[in-house]
Design a protein that fits this description.
The structure is a single chain. The protein is an alpha/beta fold. The chain has a single domain, classed as Metal-dependent hydrolases (TIM Barrel), CATH 3.20.20.140. Helix content is about 35%, strand content about 15%. A seven-stranded parallel β-sheet has the order 1-2-3-4-5-6-7. The protein has a two-stranded antiparallel ribbon with strand order 8-9. Helix 2 links the parallel strand 2 and strand 3. Helix 4 runs parallel beside helix 5. It is globular. It starts with a strand and ends with a strand.
């Protein structure tokens, strides 16, 4: 099937439920092509949730040796998901350069310095205003940080929106999206299509759950060709979720490959058989 670029284990991500062995067993059962373990590293996280949001990187690499042995012929890639804040860009750029990661995801879990998962008051604002501000922060992320490969879940902001139709759309803030997408293209990064976001929309009972077609069309028009599929799994039941459907949808816009990374070098696998 496919390589899943975005996953977390309970060993190094405090919000995850699966072990590395459970992840590997499920990947093999699903005949997946490969999988990246990308643990959370959220520097200066603003909320006290009783567990650190960073992990000991040398211990992660030490543990990964046993995981790779257990995985056998299943390609297992060692990654990290960095939590963006403007003042951390330089620190992150230097930190990840010290370690042999396969892939680095840069994500933004904050809106004006707070996580929407906890800070639901942010949704009291007009939806378009809130989404525009978030995409502007995503543009800041791409423009300000350098040492990463994949831009994580640009649609994180809509996951917890209480609106009747919370899906994020290009038409809500076209200028902000153009700035964001143009920066991705200029820096040669890959845009993650996060199927956890798709699944969360479906769990709300919505039908319009795939990424907004205008976002994908505009990214392609601007020269964007790099797409990375990630299930953002925290438990084994969602690994590679919706990948075949989403891959077919992406191919309809002209995208041809799922980009994954080995030793920080981009590899590609076909979206369609």
């Amino acid at each position: 099937m496919y390589t899943d670029n975005h996953n977390h284990t309970k060993h190094f991500s405090s919000d995850a439920k699966m072990t590395a062995h459970e992840l590997i067993d499920t990947c093999k059962a699903k005949n997946m092509r490969g999988v990246a373990i990308t643990e959370h590293y959220e520097g200066d996280y603003p909320h006290d949730i009783g567990a650190p949001q960073i992990f000991d990187i040398p211990s992660f690499f030490e543990s990964s040796k046993e995981w790779e042995e257990y995985a056998g012929d299943l390609p297992l890639y060692r990654g990290i998901e960095l939590g963006y804040q403007k003042h951390l860009c330089g620190f992150y750029d230097e930190m990840v350069a010290k370690y042999p990661f396969d892939s680095v995801i840069m994500s933004n879990h904050l809106y004006k310095g707070k996580d929407p998962y906890f800070f639901r008051d942010m949704y009291d604002a007009d939806m378009n205003v809130a989404y525009r501000a978030y995409i502007e922060e995503m543009a800041d992320l791409v423009e300000g940080c350098n040492n990463f490969d994949i831009v994580g879940h640009y649609d994180y902001i809509n996951r917890y929106g209480p609106y009747e139709k919370p899906q994020i759309k290009y038409s809500q803030c076209p200028e902000s999206f153009d700035r964001f997408l143009s920066a991705i293209v200029a820096k040669g990064k890959s845009l993650e299509i996060n199927t956890r976001s798709v699944d969360k929309m479906r769990r709300k009972g919505l039908t319009d759950t795939l990424p907004d077609p205008e976002i994908l069309r505009r990214y392609y028009e601007l020269g964007g060709r790099l797409i990375s599929l990630g299930s953002d799994s925290h438990s084994s039941d969602t690994l590679c979720i919706h990948f075949p459907e989403v891959a077919k949808y992406l191919a309809s816009f002209g995208f041809t490959e799922n980009s994954y990374y080995v030793g920080r070098k981009r590899m590609g696998e076909p979206l369609l058989p």
